[in-house]
Amino acid sequence: YKQALVHDRSALKIKPSEKYPVQCIREIEVILDQLTAQKTENAVKDTARVEKPDSVQLAGDGVKQQADSLLASAKKLEDKGDKIGSSKAYQDAAQVYRMNGELDDAMRSLKKSYALNQQLGDRDGQATDLNNMASVYYDSGQYRESVENYKKALSIKKRLGDEAGELEVLT
């Protein structure tokens, strides 16, 4: 796994001649902060999420069953001591829950993945979880929490020297 991670990271690196200028990244961060502040000011104080009708949810029960199956797999892997596989399964379940508008379930899965990645010392995995949590917070109208998680994810990517990862967080 570690060797695959090394190859994966090196494949994602931007060539030195194509580096994204640090100043541009800082400018994007400032713009992101300004947009988020504007959205927060304009947001209705009651951030209660309007539930989607069943007809709008993606394939309804089928998608829910898929997410629940991924969640069950994550728990089994965790019970067997496979923290890496479990973390990935929690991330996958979270994405399916999020696509189906089940944001609370998505957040619970991401928090479990994050805890496992902390135990593993997998900073890249933690950044991925934080980035995904930020998206769930954004979807639920919790803009301040969203920005905080995006900033944490970006900080980790910067410390790792993962410029492609920085751009992923910023987009």
Write the topology of this structure.
Layout: H1 2-12, H2 22-42, H3 61-79, H4 83-99, H5 103-120, H6 123-139, H7 143-160, H8 163-170
Uncertain segments of ≥5 residues (pLDDT<50)? 14-21, 42-59
Largest sheet: none
| Count of beta strands | 0
Helix content: over 70%
Shape: globular
Question: Taking Cα atoms only, what radius of gyration do you get, to the nearest Å?
Answer: 17 Å
CA-CA gap between termini: 27 Å
**Count of alpha and pi helical runs:** 8
- Portion of residues in beta strands equals under 5%
Give the structural class: mainly alpha
What does this structure look like?
Helices cover 75% and strands 0% of the residues. The protein is an all-alpha fold. Helix 4 runs antiparallel to helix 5 and helix 6 packs antiparallel against helix 7. The two termini are 27 Å apart.
Keywords:
171 residues; mainly alpha; 75% helix
Task: Write a concise synopsis of the structure shown.
With about 170 residues, this protein is mostly helical. The chain has eight helices and no strands.
